[in-house]
Structure formats: structure tokens, C-alpha cells
Amino acid sequence: MSAAPSLETPAPGTLAAGASPAERHSTPVDGVDVVGALSPSRAGDFMTCPLLYRFRTIDKLPEPLSPDAVRGTVVHKVLEDLFDLPALERTAVRAEQMLEPAWRRLVEAEPGLGALLEEGSGVDAERWWASCRTVLERYFTLEDPTRLEPAERELYVEWLSPARILMRGFVDRVDVAPDGAIRVVDYKTGRAPGPQFEAKALFQMKFYGLVLWRTRGVVPAMLQLVYLGSGEVLRYVPDEHDLLATERKVQAVWEAINRATVEQDWRPSRGPLCSWCAHQALCPAWGGTPPPLPEPAAT
Questions:
Q1: Are residues 169 and 207 in contact, defined by beta-carbon separation less than 8 angstroms?
Q2: Cα end-to-end span (Å), the chain
Q3: DSSP character for 122?
Q4: Which residues in 42-104 belong to E strands, given as ranges?
Q5: pLDDT of 203 higher than 60
Q6: Is the pLDDT score of 299 beyond 90?
Q7: DSSP state for residue 284 in the 8-state scheme
Q8: CB under 8 Å to 63, separation ≥6 — which residues?
Q9: Choosing a second label site near 233 at 20 to 30 A (CA), which of 9, 105, 202, 289?
Q10: Stated pTM of the model
Q11: Contact of 208 with 242, CB cutoff 8 Å
């Protein structure tokens, strides 16, 4: 990307989009050997709405704290830490006891999160904590963690494609069977999507499946999305054809991003998800005006 990052300081109760956490681990993008980096979430942003991608990745506009997103972060942390315990201690009661310590550690690491539960934030703290407990309890109806020993948790993965696109991201959990079969697991604290949105949900998992196949030489035997909001599990068995198609799709998305960057053409895609967008007031599709693009970084 040629645009310089925004230096805007987020207002209280917001978080800046900022740099991806993956940047602390990943191969640098030098514009030559590595032309760009994509995670499934950023690729998903562009496929949903190119202007949303611009707002988050180029402008790095701050967004209001989302109670649902922060709940997801806390619950993910508990489920990650749960497997540090001896198998027989991985119970629903023990997991609930881990919620508040997990929250405190997250706020210490990212103080802006604390604004979510402050007085005047508009969030009912008691109801929010109850929702955390509800989705966490539901996890135990879907899996028995006393019988699982994950090979990896919160695993950073990356792979540089032949097109020099760095595909990267974090996988919630990787299970490896005695015969070497790999299961890729992702937790979602929301509800399972309807049939018309399943392909979008599976794109993330196929993305990770592709990276693991290319780096480990084994096509994952199972891609599994665990929806704690509705108590459903979406399972998909990929094959090489699926993963090669995903590689082509990622390359096409990157080419479209690069074209939009060169032409400075970030078109909005109006649709049902617009009501959830934090930047609707700046969107031309809703009568708004985007801010000027950041100036390119000096070289």
C-alpha cells in the first residue's frame, strides 16, 4: 500500500483499526519480494465493501467499541487458556471463574477496552457479563474439552504465495490426530449464518486450510466453525481443488485491491450489512463524504 497510516488518536470509547496484530510476527512487506499482506478478515472487508476496506486498512479510522466483539475477545481468551489446565479441570464452572481474570489481562494489554464497561458507556455491564457466561456455558454442550489435547492454540500462520502475496492470520485451534490428520477449529460467539452466508463464513477457514496445506504439506481433514451464539457447529471437508480455488480467489482480491489503490477508486457496496457499519455517516451511498486519502509515505 502506498498510503501512509493515519496518526489519528481514537476518541474515548473507540479503538483505532491500527496495524494488524499479525505484523508483530509476519514477514515484512517490502513491495518487491512481498507485494502485500492479506488476512481473511481484511480480504473479507474488501469483498463486502471496498470502501470499508479503505476505512479500516488505509485510513485506519477508529471504531466504537462493540460489546459483541469484546465479548468474543474475552471468551476466546478463556477458551485458549482453558487447555492450560489438567484435562479433568476443564469444566464449565472453572471456565466461568476464568472470565474476570481474562478480562483484566486483556484490559491491561489494551486499556481502551476498559471503556466498554465504564459508567455512561451505554452498555449494561451485568447483562454483558451474563452474555459472556451464556456463550461460554454453551461451548460445553458442543465439545468436551476434557477429551481434547489441541496441538496449537492461537497459532500465527503465514505463507507467501507464488504471486508474492503474504497470506497470514491467527488460527484459534489446531487439532492433530495420531494418524496426522489436521482439524482447524475457529470459535464464533455469534449465531451461525444462514445458508446464503455460509460460503462467506467458510472462506476464512479455507484461507487457513490453504496456508496450513502449503506450510505443512497436509490438506486439513476438517474445517470446523463452532458457533457459541446459537449452539451450532459447521463442519467442512476440504480437498485440494477447494484450496487451489481459494488461492486463486485471494490473488484476485489482492489484484482488485491493488487496482483500487492505484486508481484511488474505493466504491461502497450498499447492502444489508450497512446498518452494522461504524462508518455509515462517511459513506457516499448514505449521503456522506469520505475523508481525504492519507498522503503517501515519503520514500
A1: yes
A2: 13
A3: S
A4: 63-64
A5: yes
A6: no
A7: G
A8: 14, 15, 17, 56, 278, 279
A9: 105
A10: 0.89
A11: no
